[in-house]
Amino acid sequence: METSSGGSSDEGRRIFKVDTWCSQFRNGSNPWMARYIYALMFLIANLLAWAVRDYGRGALTEMERLKGCHGARDCLGAEGVLRVSLGCFIFYFTMFLSTTGTSKMRERRSTWHSGWWSAKIILWIAFTIIPFVLPATVIRLYGDVAHFGAGVFLLIQLVSVISFITWLNDCCQSDKAADRCQIHIMLLATMAYVICLVGIISMYIWYVPQPTCLLNIFFITWTLVLLQLMTSVSLHPKVNAGILTPGLMGLYIVFICWCAIRSEPGGGKCIRNAETSTKTDWLTIISFIVAVLAMVIATFSTGIDSKCFQFRKDDNQDEEDDVPYGYGFFHLVFATGAMYFAMLLIGWNTHHPIRKWTIDVGWTSTWVRIVNEWLAVCVYLWMLVAPVIWKNRQMVVGAV
């Protein structure tokens, strides 16, 4: 009996390797390819929300359900984005409920995750249409909830980034790779710090054209202070976390600071060439496309990183029949990502005027980014200091 089972399992794995991607798509046997299809559907939802916001106001005005806006242009665009976002959220949250807890490839829920694409595409289209017949009160309620959901997405992404940086540092400092990677660590850390300093200097040049730009001066200077603080704590003898992790974290917080300042509304005196920032040119269009793709890639990469959220380590080795990543977590990240892209497209404010071909613009967006930067530093410092605190506490308890 065991021999027969083992033979069928080997045969299944051999078919999995030999079958073409097209046949795997039909039979639902490739969870690795499935994640790209989900990401493509997420990208289409992003583009649909943008099209509704920038070019769908005429159609939205004719809809009876949107009369709560009283014809307000910005309100209609924001509600259109929220309706598309709600449909995307419902789809991925349904997938989350139907796949969470899946552990083996042979389970029916695994087949549902990786296959049945005709049914899921019909379901996705239906969920996209349904929010457009809901009353405006429901959409406004979803908009309030989406603020929280987008914050959850940022937190998940933050933990994923810090986990990756820590994992990379642990790999480089392991006994097997310590001697071989020492030079690479120094080069990578030096490069990271150089890029951080160049980025900070560039932000001073471009976003502080005059001494009256006190807010931008505070954002940039405080980022430099946080970089120094992370480095000092990491190099403390009791922590001894090395120089690579604070350098990579420095890149992350400098990037967030840059995104925050870039989110400030155009036309101000604290941005060079501010008069051209209100015009839609090819650079604005390229920046928008890059931002949308970056958002989809960030959601995609975070969705397959479920192991960094396991609070209990599993010492058992992975079996060949185990799922390659957490299906439920993957869809949950995309569900919160649907709320996040809605907030980016409306500037975290349903009545904030958004210019065409822009994303994540407004003072609310700026402060969300800044708070995210400060939170990232707090989480990183806690990850460094917590083991030392717990060790000292255990020593005190043991001595008593």
TrEMBL record:
InterPro entries: TDE1/TMS (IPR005016). It is found in: Membrane. It is a multi-pass membrane protein. The chain crosses the membrane at residues 36-55, 76-97, 117-138, 145-165, 185-207, 214-235, 241-261, 282-304, 324-346, 367-390. GO terms for cellular component: membrane. Keywords: Membrane, Transmembrane, Transmembrane helix. The keyword Membrane applies. Belongs to the TDE1 family. This is Probable serine incorporator isoform X1. The gene is LOC111450444.
